[in-house]
Amino acid sequence: MAKLKEVFPCVWEYEGKILTKNRVPGKKVYGEQLIKIDGVEYRVWNPYRSKLAAAIKNGLKTWAFHPGVNVLYLGIAEGTTASHISDILGDDSAIIGVDVAPRVMPKIIAVAEERGNILPILADASKPDEYPEEVRQFIDEVGGVDIVYQDVAAPNQAEILWKNVNRFLKKGGYAYIAIKSRSVDVTRDPREIFDEFRRFFESKGLRVVEEVNIEPYEKDHEMMVLKKG
């Protein structure tokens, strides 16, 4: 008989599936499967729909998401991954979700209203100094966010992450970036691009803690984990 195994705080594995405990029982966010185990409802975290789940499936070891931390999420879109992070973090955390696309706002706002710990912002992640003043003030008041998570498919995705890390990530905090090499240059070897990202971040004083290739879930992608000294 299969057993529920905790792989990270508030993240479980069951029958080969990654699960988070549903913060809003009975509610789905993106059509994910709901499973009840010992009277508790869990959501199946689909690695084909979430690059963070794909990284977990492929052996991610560095885990900074736990109850009480604050997250700046760049490229939150409709909230697929963010909803699972919401499950993990609980009531005493905030996920500040930035996206530049107006079309995703109705969906992520609806998800945020149900969950209570997500704050969606329509803004350009490449211009962090133009985020709403109350958001910048909140981050400053809490001493910076604990995590910057980025899933932005853009040629300048490294620079976007650095601007936000430099401005908002506290010392000792972690950054997770889902690097899509084809968004940088479709003609180049992905490994060459990943190496370029590593050199760029190291030149800014960030430590590259871990790199996880996330194929077959996403082609030519890797999850890079960084730490701010």
Notes on the structure:
Helix content is 29%, strand content 31%. The chain has 229 residues and is α/β, with parallel strands linked by helices. It has one domain: 3-Layer(aba) Sandwich (Rossmann fold), CATH 3.40.50. The strands form 2 sheets. It has a 7-stranded mixed β-sheet with strand order 8-7-6-9-10-12-11, sandwiched between helices. A 5-stranded antiparallel β-sheet has the order 1-2-3-5-4. A hairpin with a 2-residue loop joins strand 1 (5-8) and strand 2. The protein is globular, with a radius of gyration of 17 Å. The mean pLDDT is 96.
Helical segment count = 7
CATH topology: Rossmann fold
User: What is the percentage of strand-forming residues?
Assistant: 25-35%
What is the H-and-E element order? EEEEEHEHEHEHEHEHHEE
CATH architecture: 3-Layer(aba) Sandwich
Sum up the structure in keywords:
single chain; Rossmann fold; alpha/beta; 229 residues
Describe the secondary structure blueprint for this structure.
Elements: E1 5-8, E2 11-14, E3 17-21, E4 34-37, E5 40-44, H1 51-57, E6 71-74, H2 80-89, E7 95-99, H3 105-115, E8 118-122, H4 133-141, E9 145-150, H5 157-168, E10 169-180, H6 181-184, H7 190-203, E11 206-213, E12 221-228
Parallel strand pairs: 6-7, 6-9, 7-8, 9-10
Antiparallel strand pairs: 1-2, 2-3, 3-5, 4-5, 10-12, 11-12
Question: What would a concise description of this structure say?
Answer:
By secondary structure, the protein is α/β, with parallel strands linked by helices.
